[in-house]
Design brief:
Layout (H helix, E strand, L loop, with lengths): L12 H7 L13 H32 L3 H6 L15 H7 L2 H34 L5 H11 L4 H15 L5 H24 L4 H9 L4 H12 L1 H16 L3 H6 L7 H12 L3 H21 L1 H9 L5
Helix pairs in contact: 2-14, 5-8, 5-11, 5-13, 6-8, 8-11, 11-14, 11-15, 13-14
């Protein structure tokens, strides 16, 4: 049935409909001056916070490009008045230092296996706790949650004795095993909670088609859980790369990572800021590259579940 429009006598209905303003959706309404002003203030405050947050890193970078004489004579901000102070000699000398480069490769040898093992084992265990039925599943999940509250410091002495008995104390393998063991509870808890948000209908449809649990994990769970897995990888990588406590206890001079090498330089040379700043900035560079490379996955994981 066609809808009719009743108008007053002598009034053109078409012209009246054209003159009648149509309501705009709520999302299409323009923001008022107050909202624009508030948004501008928020952006201004965030910009100021970001500048103050980056000043120490920027100062560290400029200090690493100055000689020890210039660093002793004046602050890093004087480089804007005298750009001739900038030099890459500090980095050239640092990259030619066999001790530092050995610690750099030790850091990679510790961080990469620790991150890969935690991500792989955590993903498999998270899927098992989320979608597989087996005896004692709930009890084991409670144990995993309880292990989240165990501080690293509690295990330093007993694990040191255990590694000494096994003959791996002071080696890269011992540090990798320690980081893997203490990274797994958080990894399992995080991925299990993320995997439970995946619709069960997808797994049921795959099982009806004859897919095995391994095939479901590889073809369904991993693609959908990639944001959480990438976020876990970022957290674990940054945690292990920047760790000094565990490395300071469980490594020797031949297996120490960059953090311990920089700490030893600080103890030996004290105010040798040119060596310390260049080494510290190089140790920051790799985590920054990893974070920005996987930033889109990290943001996707933060926004997961916020919209339907």
């Amino acid at each position: 049935m066609a809808a009719t429009v009743s108008t007053a006598p002598g009034v053109d209905p078409i012209a009246s409909a054209r003159r009648t303003p149509k309501p705009r959706p709520a999302g299409a309404r323009r923001a008022g001056p107050g909202a624009l002003l508030g948004r501008g203030l928020v952006n201004l405050v965030l910009g100021i916070v970001a500048v103050f947050w980056l000043v120490p890193s920027f100062g560290l970078f400029l200090s690493s490009l100055r000689s020890s004489t210039d660093n002793s004579a004046s602050g890093w901000w004087t480089v804007f008045a005298a750009p001739a102070q900038l030099t890459v000699d500090n980095y050239a000398g640092l990259l030619g230092n066999a001790q530092f480069m050995g610690s750099f490769w030790n850091t990679i040898a510790i961080t990469v296996p620790s991150t890969v093992l935690v991500v792989v084992i955590g993903a498999l265990a998270g899927y098992a706790f989320a979608w597989m039925r087996f005896p004692g599943r709930d009890a084991l999940l409670i144990v995993v949650i309880v292990l989240l509250a165990v501080p690293v410091q509690v295990a330093l002495i007993p694990v040191s004795k255990l590694f000494g008995a096994l003959g791996i104390f002071g080696s890269v393998l011992g540090v990798v095993l320690f980081h893997t063991a203490f990274g797994l509870p958080f990894a399992i808890f995080l991925l299990r909670n993320f995997f439970t948000q995946i619709p069960a209908e997808l797994m049921e449809a795959a099982r009806i088609d004859g897919a095995s649990e391994w095939r479901i994990f590889v073809r369904v769970i991993l693609p959908l859980g990639m944001p959480a897995i990438a976020s876990l990888g970022i957290f674990q990588f940054l945690w292990v790369w920047n760790d000094m406590l565990v490395a300071l206890i469980f490594t020797n001079p031949s297996s120490q990572p960059v953090t311990v090498a920089i700490q030893s330089q600080l103890r030996q040379f004290g105010a040798n800021i040119d060596v310390l700043s260049s080494g510290a900035f190089l140790s920051m560079l790799i985590p920054l590259v990893v974070f920005f490379a996987f930033q889109r996955y990290f943001v996707s994981a933060l926004l997961a579940g916020s919209t339907k």
